Structure formats: structure tokens, C-alpha cells
Amino acid sequence: MATQKSTRPPAPAAERPHPDATRRSQRSRQAIYDAALALVGEVGYPKTTIEGIAARAGVGKQTIYRWWSSKADVLLEAFLDLGEQAAGQEAYAIPDTGDLAADLKAVLRATVDELRDPRFETPSRALAAEGVVNEQLGREFVAKLLEPSLQLYVDRLRAAQEAGQVRPDIDPRIALELFVSPLAQRWLQHTGPFSHAYTDTLVDYALHGLAPR
Amino acid sequence: MATQKSTRPPAPAAERPHPDATRRSQRSRQAIYDAALALVGEVGYPKTTIEGIAARAGVGKQTIYRWWSSKADVLLEAFLDLGEQAAGQEAYAIPDTGDLAADLKAVLRATVDELRDPRFETPSRALAAEGVVNEQLGREFVAKLLEPSLQLYVDRLRAAQEAGQVRPDIDPRIALELFVSPLAQRWLQHTGPFSHAYTDTLVDYALHGLAPR
């Protein structure tokens, strides 16, 4: 999804190292993230190892273990970092212009573009595939990566309920699935092509329903 | 999905063997299907081999190669067979009682039950995970296993359009995703619990829309 909040806490002030060391650490971190994402995309989650990430990033294993306790943790932060880069200067919220359909369409169009970006697609597929058969990992990544972005839709739909644009009896957490899940399934399972026109259609169908009015 | 048509052609009459041989063949086929589904569920698609299936089924490799050209072909037929068993005596259609909501809810409730059946769940997850990262295999299994069952929803929605219960401008192939894809995503990605109440809600939201009427 296009927007994700980082849950990484800032280092406490007392532990902050010298600026040069910070820059070196930052470069190492970025090299480790890049290596982890590239590796998982190439060999899949089961064959991705801390050793392999370290070798590819050109750092020692101990550098990784100083910051993270497992390959799942490294990958989780690498994806959070990737999401922050993709979000760029965008706010961590779905716009509220007062036009719910237009706002949802805009965010879903951006998501379509992001899903097609190979930097995102290859590692995301590898991780999603593992989550399908590894329930614990799947649940952890959903809780930390996917659910925070879904909550942005919940917030936008709640605002629309307050504005009288969504029925008050609707559960926003289920409602968002009417447009988010079809796109997710087409992407994940190759069940059909997706485009801006497709996601626009999903929003129109979800808001206005299939039955005649 | 609950209902799937077999695409396996019957053996031409001239090649039909003696009844005893047919029975033996049928037993071997079933043993091969069972072995293939068990194995893919245990070790995943990449590590499933024709040799492994043959050993587990207690048949020679040549017996498998006589009938199928690849492990993908064996698994495809094994899933078709499993789908036929699950469908039992049910017709290969979604019921049309004249009440679209009730008919869709009934089929989705049956799908919820099927997705929880471990005989179906474990091998299906293994295959779905592979399809996420192996586009060719994913597309083949979607075309041969998933799409035929989705077409049953297309047929039911078309009948509802003719009966004036679905707007004439709706594309049924997209419309069905409003209730099928959320269930698929919750199952595949562990993004949330699912129940009969959940799928009932999806049908109500999809038919009547999120916006006030």
C-alpha cells in the first residue's frame, strides 16, 4: 500500500553516536535493507539468511545482530523504509477533499503504480508467498506493514460517515475490503489485469452497490 | 471454491482397458492424487517431485509419466478431483432461487467451510504461495481451477441482471470480486477472521453499497 507509518523508535539521545558514525551507520543500514530486499526477491524467504544479507551488504554478521534479532526483523524494517521512500513527502493519511470517491480513487491509483514498481514488487511477492504458508510470519507482517495502511482507509471512511456519505451502520474495516481486496487478489494471484480504470470501477461499485437504486 | 468442473477428457473407447485393470488404474490414480496433495502440503511446490509422489503413492515413476507430463499436471488434476469430491452431488452452478442475496450467501458460507477443511487448506496454500512468485504456474492454476468457479458467479449475476436485481451497466466479472476477493485475502494473507456472518456482510455491502440510498 502506498502509505505506511514507521514504528521504529528514534534512538534515545544519550545513545546517539558522533555525527560521522551516524552517517556510517545510516549507510550500513541502507546497504543492509537493500541487500535483504534483493536477496528475498531472488531466493525467497526460507533461503534468505543473516549471513547472506551481511555478505551482500558488505558488513559483518555482528553489525546486523547489533541492530536486529532475526531476518524477519531486518525485512520488516527494510519494508517500512521502502514504504517511507515510496510515500516520499506525502502525508500519512488519505486525502479528505470532501469527495470520498475521488479520494479513494486517487489512493488506489497510486497503489496500482506502486504495485508495478519492481523495487517493491519482487521482495513483496516473496514475503507474501511465505506469509501464505507461514502463518506466524504472515500475521506479523500483516500487523506491522499492511494493517497500519488499512487503518488509513478506516479513518477516511469514518470521516465520510460523519459527513453522511457512508451509511452509519457500515463497519469501515470490512467496507474497505470491497475495493482493497480485489486489487490485492489480482496482484497476488494473477487473477486479472489491473489499471486505474479497474480501481475506479471498484470504488464506484462499492459506494453505489450492484443492485438498482 | 466450492464448485469446479473437471476438464479431464474421458479415455477414448478404443483405449479403454479391461474392467479389473480400470479398477487398478483408478486406485493408482487416487493414490497418486493423495500423495501429490499430501507432499505439496508438507514440503511445498519446489521440493515436490514426480519421484517423491511415486514413492509415496507406491507406484513406479513410469506409471505417473504414462498419464501426466509434469508435477504441475498431476497437481492440477489432483485439485480438480478434490474439488469434485467436495462438490459431491451438488450441481456445478450457483442456485437461482430468485433471491440473489440468499443464493450468494449460501455459496460463500459453503466456501468458508471448505477453506477451513485441512484436506483442502494445506495443499491449496502451498500451491497459492507458489503461484504468488511463479507467474506462469499461478496463471495456469487460476485459468484451470479458480476461473471456472468464478464464472459460476458471472452466470448467476447475469441472471440477476436479466431479472432486474443487478444494474445493467455492471460488469459481473468485476462485481463478483467485491465479495469473493475479501474472503480470498483474509484466507490467503491471514488479514482477519472469517465466518458466515462476515461473508453475509460482504454480500449485503456489495449489493446495497456503502453510500446512503
UniProtKB/TrEMBL annotation, chains A, B:
InterPro entries the record matches:
Homeodomain-like_sf, HTH-type_TetR-like_transc_reg, HTH_TetR, Tet_transcr_reg_TetR-rel_C_sf, TetR_C
Q: What keywords are assigned to this protein?
A: DNA-binding, Transcription, Transcription regulation
Segments for region (Disordered): 1-27
Mind listing where the DNA-binding region sits, in residue ranges?
Answer: 49-68
Q: Which domain of life is it from?
A: Bacteria
Database matches in Gene3D superfamilies: Homeodomain-like, Tetracycline Repressor, domain 2
Q: Which residues form the HTH tetR-type domain?
A: 26-86
Which named protein is this?
A: TetR/AcrR family transcriptional regulator
Per the UniProt record, the source organism is: Streptomyces ardesiacus
